[in-house]
Amino acid sequence: MEYVISVNKGRFEDIFNNPKVIALFENKPILKPAPIYNSCLECFAISVCQALLACPPFVRYVKEKIAETKLDMHMKSLVAQFAAHSIPAAGSGDWPRVSISKLLNSIPGGFNGKCREDAEDWYRQLSKEFYDETFGQVSAYYKTVCHECGKCREINDKSPRVQLRCPDLEITAANIESMLAVTGNEIVTWEHDGCENTTCRETTRYEFPDVILVSVDTFQDGNRHIGKELEFFPTEDFSPISVNNDEPDIFHLGGVIYFRTFNCFRDESSGHYMARVYHHGNVFLADDNRIYEQNINRPTEPANSVPYFAFYYRQRRAGRF
Ligand SMILES: [Zn+2]
Fold it and tell me: What sequence ranges are listed for the domain USP (predicted)?
């Protein structure tokens, strides 16, 4: 059967808000980023959406979710638009321009449009409104041990921030692997009763869902920025900080959120967010409605930018999906 999409009724860009149109693209894959038009200071959310839509478990979650809210509907619409823009024969110019203004406004408390927001904060708000209890929840277990008195402290954090610490660059190169090793076993200060020693070892283990936001602390010793030298590889073994650490816990890189800054600090009022995204072995820089394909072996860093956080998704495990 051939489908003809009528554009006579309603505005052209609204055709993807129709559930029947969305259903037409349900089985079509997302192969690349779609250009998203930035209506007004929306780059913080555009970059997050670009990276999330490069994570297949997120896309699957969107498709399988029953649309109950406006946010559900707009997210399904966005996924359908990305699938449409991935169809080579159509040519992206044939499709209505992609905008996420309505999606932004469908989150309670919404975007005021007056100033750029923090991309990581926005993702937290999105996940709170959009994820159910079966998806996207991280849990952290911190265990601190004193080697002097043998005292032990265990803390479980139900909504932790997964933040990778920077290694000592004199000893090792800055990449995710070395950051994972440092983050999993740290020396911390712990003052505890009846003991002189306060320098203790702390192990951090996370229970990871299938899609995770991993923030990278790229300021060594609080001032020296290592962002320029930080390497991201398409696949990482998260077992050094995972509760499943007796076997590899393999995650793929969906995208890295970069913040362009001129003074090395994140100042939302005077910067810009972009995403480097990975789709089916290809890598792209998605800067609002400008999409640049990059060399997978040597992706270039956006000018004047530092990596802020990345989205990873778990490799499919046999029998799990
Ligand atoms: Zn002690």
Answer: 34-315
Which residues have C-beta under 5 Å from ligand 1, the single-atom ion? 146, 148-149, 151, 195, 197
H or E segment to which residue 70 belongs: helix 70-85
Query: If you measure from the C-alpha of residue 191 to the centroid of ligand 1, how many angstroms do you get, rounded to a whole number?
Result: 8
SS (H, E, C) 106-166: CCCCCCCCCCCCCHHHHHHHHHHHHCCCCCCCCEEEEEEECCCCCCEEEEEECCCCCEECC
pLDDT at 112: 67
CA 182 / ligand 1 centre spacing (Å): 22
Model confidence over 36-60: pLDDT tens digits? 999 888 999 999 999 999 999 999 9
User: What distance in angstroms lies between residue 157's CA and the mean position of ligand 1's atoms?
Assistant: 23
Mention every residue, 6+ apart, whose C-beta is less than 8 A from residue 234: 252, 253, 278, 281, 296
- Distance from the alpha carbon of residue 126 to the mean position of ligand 1, in angstroms: 42
Instruction: Give me ligand 1 centre to Cα 238, in Å.
Output: 30
CATH placement of domain 12-314: 3.90.70.10
231-262 residue pLDDT tens: 889 999 999 999 987 889 999 999 999 988 76
241 C-alpha vs ligand 1 centroid, how far in Å?
A: 24
For ligand 1, the distance from its centroid to the CA atom of residue 59, given in whole angstroms, is: 48
Sequence ranges of the domains in the chain: 12-314
Least confident window among 99-103, 112-116, 221-225:
221-225
β-strands 305-314, 290-294 pairing: unpaired
pLDDT given for residue 91 in this prediction: 53
